[in-house]
Amino acid sequence: MSQELEMEATVYDGPPIEPDGPYGSKLSATVAKVPGPIRNVTSEAGGMTLLLGKVLWSAVRHPRGYWNDVLDEMHFTIKRSWIAISVALFGFLLALSVPSMQFVALAGVGELYGPLLLVQSTRTFTVWVATLLVAGVVGAAMTAELGSRKVREELDAMEVMGIDPIRTLVLPRIVSVTLITTLLAIPAALITVVSSQFGSWFIGGIPRADFYGAFLWTSLSTVEVVALMFNCFLAGLLIGAVCCYKGLSAAGGAMGLGKAVNQAVVIAFLALFIMQLGYNAVILGFFPGLGAFK
User: Fold this and answer.
1) pLDDT at 115
2) Under the phi-then-psi rule, with left for phi > 0, alpha for psi from -120 to 50, and beta for the rest, what region is 265?
């Protein structure tokens, strides 16, 4: 018997038989050589980009039929989380303004508090805190809801019935979180101004009239406000794409769902940090006067 097997092995003269698996072909074998962490990050980033592209294409191609769901989602989300977001935003920004004013007061340059720290905190820290709160509160709830539907196989049932889950579930949530984050830019800027004014008055002894008259209106410009809102708009798209993708890819029951929610929040935090660096560099490149003292 062993002799027959050896003869058959020697008779075969074809190409080598490639192993089974996801990297069996010659083309995909090159992908298998990429380190696992890099391959996983690239794959997930591509999936999130593809999902966002599908949502934007569906929203632009058929711009009707989903706005009622968007308004309902926005109303439910704002009603559930506006108090937590407002309190946390004021607390974080106040915690920034008080030590910042202490530093400039000890240095004897309290007059630079407005044109330096207020503008910088409005441009960077305000957006950072506001978007992190949206990702941690709204994004986590979005991932948990979509992930629970995925685990219960409701999405598969919708596809069997001819209902597109991307159009029905994902699109309204991405549009709603984008609008919420964009609309949050103005209240967040106002909270930044109030907390900064409180810190300047309580620590530095700067009168309110001097703060609002000399610091605020000469430091913040229309370009700053527009850039702030557009920054929050891009952040909302990023949060929606990351959280919806992780919700749609959840698997493994309750443990897998909790892991997906945790990963969505962490990935959103890191992606927002990277986006802020690139966005502020581009804005300052187009408008270099924003970084100048006034």
Assistant:
1) 57
2) alpha
Instruction: Identify which of 207, 227, 210, 209 has the alpha carbon closest to the alpha carbon of residue 286.
Output: 227
Determine the Cα–Cα distance for residues 59 and 74; give it in Å rounded to an integer. 17
State the number of CA atoms in the 13 A half-sphere of 209 facing the CB: 0
Alpha carbons within 13 A on the beta-carbon side of 229? 10
Nearest to 152 by CA among 246, 224, 253, 48: 253
| C-beta separation of 114 from 211 below 8 A | yes
Summarize pLDDT for 119-136 with one digit per residue, the tens: 777 777 788 888 888 888
The answer to whether residue 23 scores a pLDDT higher than 50 is no
| Dihedral (Cα; 237, 266, 74, 120), 10-degree rounding | -70
Contact 151, 258 (CB under 8 A): no
Q: Taking a C-beta distance cutoff of 8 angstroms, is the pair 123, 198 a contact?
A: no
- Burial tier of 56 (Cβ tally within 10 Å: 0-12, 13-18, 19+): middle
DSSP conformation class of 214? I
Distance from chain centroid for Cα 220: 25
Distance CA 117, CA 121 (A): 6
Q: How confident is the model at residue 6 (pLDDT cuts 50, 70, 90)?
A: very low
Q: What is the pTM of this model?
A: 0.81
CA–chain centroid gap for 86, Å, is 18
